[in-house]
Task: inverse folding
């Protein structure tokens, strides 16, 4: 049987949680795909106030397997900063 296109899991949503799950699945060598109806982090782009900031310091507001390497580890990231983080 041809297994082309067969995946072990499907992740719905490419926000913080979905990309975190995708990372964990990749670490476990599981074939998976991520489905997102908009762009990566779409709700972070379109459903946040312009003045929104995280309530955790930047050094803790990173994706699994990543580390904060910016100039302000104790600052508080904006929603646009977080979208950039997701895109990277």
Result:
């Amino acid at each position: 049987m041809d297994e082309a296109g067969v995946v072990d899991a499907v992740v719905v949503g490419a926000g913080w949680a979905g990309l975190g799950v995708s990372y964990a699945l990749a670490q476990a060598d599981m074939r998976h795909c991520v489905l997102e109806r908009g762009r990566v982090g779409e709700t972070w782009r379109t459903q946040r106030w312009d003045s929104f900031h995280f309530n955790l310091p930047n050094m803790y507001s990173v994706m699994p397997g990543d580390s904060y390497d910016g100039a302000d580890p104790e600052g508080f990231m904006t929603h646009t900063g977080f979208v950039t983080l997701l895109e990277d």
